[in-house]
């Protein structure tokens, strides 16, 4: 592959990752802000808070590193500072954070659902 095609491909991929990261920052930031203002659900308050902050961290991490790596690759792509490992490590960490956040938020939402078999009823409702 020639250098021009690699630059175009990287630019498209970094723009897509940046847009996805911005959308994710917006959604997770809105949820964290809304819950901080109005209070978290009565069930699993700390669990919701911690798990939503993981998704916010993953989003900010992705936006920050796609911006740095995208600009750095365009300006100094031939330098070792912007080699394949420099791209792979931060993006892989962001991906892992997203997987952790999505899985843990799904778990806590499913366990808080009224129809969930894992849901523990409130103390006053137990017989």
What does this structure look like?
This protein is mainly α and 127 residues long. The chain has a domain at 44-112. Helix content is 76%, strand content 0%. The chain is built from three helices and no strands. Helix 1 packs antiparallel against helix 2 (45-76) and helix 2 packs antiparallel against helix 3. The mean pLDDT is 82. The chain crosses the membrane at residues 12-33, 54-76, 88-110. Keywords: Membrane, Transmembrane, Transmembrane helix.
Contiguous helical run count: 3
Low-confidence stretches: none
| pLDDT averaged residue by residue | 82
Order of helices and strands: HHH
- Rg (CA only): 20 Å
Q: Outline the biggest β-sheet.
A: none
What attributes characterize this protein structure?
transmembrane helix; 127 residues; 3 helices; mainly alpha; 76% helix; membrane
Describe the secondary-structure layout:
Blueprint: H1 3-38, H2 45-76, H3 84-112
Helix pairs in contact: 1-2, 2-3
In short:
With 127 residues, the chain is mainly alpha-helical. It is 76% helix and 0% strand. The protein has three helices and no strands.
């Amino acid at each position: 592959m020639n250098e021009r095609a690699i630059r175009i491909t990287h630019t498209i991929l970094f723009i897509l990752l940046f847009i996805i990261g911005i959308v994710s920052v917006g959604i997770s930031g809105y949820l964290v802000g809304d819950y901080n203002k109005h209070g978290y659900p009565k069930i699993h308050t700390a669990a919701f808070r911690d798990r939503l902050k993981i998704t916010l961290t993953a989003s900010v991490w992705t936006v920050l590193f796609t911006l740095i790596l995208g600009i750095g690759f365009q300006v100094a792509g031939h330098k070792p500072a912007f080699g394949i490992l420099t791209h792979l490590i931060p993006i892989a960490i962001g991906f892992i954070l997203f997987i952790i956040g999505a899985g843990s938020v799904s778990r806590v939402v499913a366990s808080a659902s009224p129809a969930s078999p894992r849901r523990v009823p409130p103390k006053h409702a137990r017989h």
